[in-house]
């Protein structure tokens, strides 16, 4: 893997909480407008620039992207975002405190990520591995946002096989006073950031990461794809201007910051936060369906018994406790579904509960063939809890809800290593990366 430090654009220490925000894709325009109300420093003015207009039908209107660039310039002019004078790495920690609803058995946890500039060619050549398909329209949206701002405003979330030598460096860095340290009002998570300025430490991190054979995209597939497309566009523009194909050279150890590497255009890199895989927590990603495809609840349960053991769990919320168990909520009751032997396989895709449920419930019984386009189905991240599933059924909006046991980080790695793609809406990571703590400019 090839990474480099960069001159981060970030808020002054006193403004970090006011400027930073949730990622652009976890809330809609109305929610972003409400969260940014009364706060002109909120990053939502850049990443959800439609909030600067009256509610509009087309959030992809060219004026919206132009407003993002205008706001980005304004933030820099006002001193709400300031660029570091030297290239740095950063350590970003996210903490779920004790007693938080997402704390496991009441005990909180912290995950520590390295904020780096990742090389686009590693993505194009498969060393940055993906496990999801991307949609062209979403790629186009993020690509236009990167081009108009000439920056990666928000990072991609990477995972890597944990290494004790990197853990030791991070532990040493995080034993010092942080640059930022605050608790977000929206979710109660603590966000802490340290700046790594020591040249020897920077060089060591670059060398160690250079020995890591692959990174895995945990969240941010569209941002990664958009960064690669922007890089290719800018290379072509430079080629046409110069009359030849620009060359870059990395000599010897690819992790060494040689003079040639320093001369590589900044647009050949994009913003990423890299976490060790043993610190990450993957949540469930659940389904709600509008109708039972012409079946009564009794008929639906009867058909389920062909492939599942069905247990009536009554009115109390039931959460799947193991792989190949599911929770069904319908007509005021919860049911435990246990997949029968032979309904799943041992291959990386066939073993997934999302595959079992998609094939045997959503497709076979409910006639939902395409999870990406069928309007009868919706998806609910585990952060919202199982009560949210019950509420949407009880309201009459949905006919049934299906809760899944979460995939593991190892399953994600296995699928990416095998070159396979996960079914849609399989993984939900928490905490989400806070946007606006560090921004990467393309030069």
If you average the pLDDT, what whole number results?
Answer: 92
Uncertain segments are: 246-259
Radius of gyration over alpha carbons?
23 Å
The shape is globular
Number of separate strands:
21
How much strand content do the residues show? 15-25%
How many separate helices?
Answer: 14
Structural class: alpha+beta
Major β-sheet profile: 9 strands, mixed
Could you estimate the helical fraction of the residues in percent?
Answer: 25-40%
| End-to-end separation | 22 Å
Structure summary:
With 443 residues, the chain is an alpha+beta fold. It has helices at 16-19, 29-36, 44-47, 62-78, 120-124, 136-149, 164-173, 199-210, 221-242, 259-262, 297-304, 353-363, 385-394, 409-417; strands at 3-4, 9-10, 82-83, 89-96, 109-119, 128-129, 151-152, 156-160, 180-183, 190-196, 215-219, 269-276, 282-283, 285-289, 308-314, 325-330, 333-339, 377-381, 400-404, 428-429, 440-441. The chain is globular, with a radius of gyration of 23 Å.
Plain-language structure description:
The chain is of the alpha+beta class and 443 residues long. 31% of the residues lie in helices and 22% in strands. It contains 14 helices and 21 strands. The strands form 5 sheets. Strands 1, 4, 5, 6, 8, 9, 10, 11 and 12 form a 9-stranded mixed beta sheet that branches. A 6-stranded antiparallel beta sheet has the order 15-17-16-19-14-18, with helices on both faces. Strand 9 (180-183) and strand 10 form a beta hairpin. The longest helix has 22 residues, at 221-242.
